[in-house]
Amino acid sequence: MPQLKCAECGEPFAPREAKQRFCSPACRIAWFANERREAVRRYRSEMPSSYFEMEAGRDDESSGPAVTGASPVYGANLPAPAWSKALASLPKERPLGERVDAVNDISAVWFDPEYVAPTVES
After folding, report:
1. Residue 5 DSSP symbol
2. Could you give the CA distance from residue 43 to residue 119 in angstroms, rounded to a whole number?
3. Considering its fold, how many domains does the chain have in total?
């Protein structure tokens, strides 16, 4: 058989079978790993990252309602609510436990072992 070029590294090799594309199992595994990586990257780039992107990509005019006489989806063309814009402008919260030394000492808590909670009589 004639010499072929490896599909992964490009080195010439003598194939043992007519359909052989790679010079070694390492090149074959590397090529398929790259193919899987690229396929996942293409799949993720085509997917909407949020519900709003997914809804923006829908073509509601061509499909029409599934049931005759059905009204369009409520809120499909409404602007973003004002409260969501206000929340976006708020400053970031400090993480919990930032000032641990400000917590009172546990020895200051008083506990009476003989205390009995009052009961409700019916």
Report:
1. E
2. 63
3. 1
Task: Kindly report whether the global pTM for this prediction surpasses the value 0.70.
Answer: no
53-95 tens-digit pLDDT? 767 766 655 555 555 555 666 666 777 777 777 777 777 776 6
- Expressed as residue numbers, the domain containing 29 is 1-59
CA angle 20, 25, 30 (to 5 degrees): 105
Q: 């049931």: which residue's tokens? A: 67
Report yes or no on 27 lying in a domain. yes
Q: What values do phi and psi take at 5, rounded to 5? A: -95, 135
Residue 29 lies in a domain: yes
Residues 6+ apart with CB under 8 A from 73: 60
